[in-house]
Amino acid sequence: MTALLADEVADRLRRVRERVAAACASADRDPGEVTVVAVTKTHPPEAAQAAVDAGCMDLGENRVQEWQAKAPLVDGARWHLVGPVQTNKVRHVVGHGLLLHACDRSDLVADIGRRAVRAGVVQDVLVQVNVGADPAKHGCDPDEVAALLDLAAGTDGIRVLGLMTVPPLPGPDVDANRATRPHFARLRALRDAHAPTHPDLHHLSMGMTADLEAAVAEGATLVRLGTAIFGPRQSGPWRPTT
Ligand SMILES: *Cc1c(COP(=O)(O)O)cnc(C)c1O
After folding, report:
1. Which of 35, 51, 34 is nearest to 43 (CA)?
2. 100 CB near ligand 1 (under 6 Å)
3. Which of 13, 15, 24, 167 has the fewest CB atoms within 10 Å, i.e. is most exposed?
4. In this structure, what DSSP letter does residue 141 have?
């Protein structure tokens, strides 16, 4: 990546931090409570490195293969897997210091725990909840959260640090911040309901480029931003050219 493009990532990141700061000010929150996860999917490792060099250490990928290809080429990042984990990929992601945002089924809890115990680690995850009951989205139903949290609490090798959601995509003429806010409020209410019995349950991973303000207003601690930082996505996953 040329210096110019790295400068552009740094510039965009500066504007993103301003948006987060403004949203925090409106919500009377400390900006230090909100971590920006720069979602690098489809973008080359040079763009990811530019984000880290500009002070954004938390990077996210939504596909295991793309993370595997890119992560070794980026220094100093803390990686988040924000997309689904297929059962056959569990062994590739456990024990690498990733935060897994999309744990949404009991068999995944069990598999992750088993692999983590074998590796001698505790794997941190978030439970993804489909708060909008959107058939196109991953995540468990809101009424399954209690059972998943209890299962994880009784499973060695896994620790649930919070909840995550991807709300339904609002139509083109709709203000995304307005459309998504009730869904974010719902995730927060679930976290607040279960935190007394699950003390590790702290994070709310919610908010993307179009609706970061609504998410921060409802208590997001991790906002997952791709387009705002790296510009429009490329046509497909980034692959090393060999
Ligand atoms: C791609 C992606 C994002 C980032 O989306 P933008 O709208 O580009 O900010 C956030 N979360 C998940 C799960 C994603 O796959």
Report:
1. 51
2. no
3. 15
4. -
Residues with Cβ within 8 Å of 158's Cβ and at least 6 positions away in sequence, in order, are 103, 109, 112, 113, 116, 122, 123, 125, 152
| Cβ atoms of residues 220 and 207 within 8 Å | yes
Task: State in Å: Cα 177 to ligand 1 middle.
Answer: 15
Q: Output the pLDDT for position 102.
A: 98
- Residue 195 Cα to ligand 1 midpoint, Å, equals 26
Structure tokens at 95: 């024990």
Q: How is residue 44 written in tokens?
A: 């080359």
Query: Ligand 1 centre and the CA of 141: distance in Å?
Result: 21
Determine the distance separating the centroid of ligand 1 and the alpha carbon of 118, expressed in angstroms: 32
Alpha helices in the chain (DSSP H): 3-27, 45-53, 64-70, 90-93, 106-119, 145-153, 176-194, 212-217, 227-230
Mean pLDDT of all residues belonging to the chain: 96
Close Cβ partners of 148 (under 8 Å, ≥ 6 residues apart)? 103, 104, 105, 106, 109, 127, 140, 160
Note whether 112 and 125 are within 8 A (CB).
Answer: yes
- Closest-CA residue, ligand 1 atom 6, reads 226
Task: Write the pLDDT tens digit of every residue in 207-225.
Answer: 999 999 999 999 999 999 9
pLDDT at 210: 96
CB contact at 8 A, 15 and 56: no
CB-CB contact of 140 with 130 (8 Å): yes
The answer to whether the CB of 226 is under 6 A from ligand 1 is yes
C-beta of 83 in contact with ligand 1 (< 6 A): yes
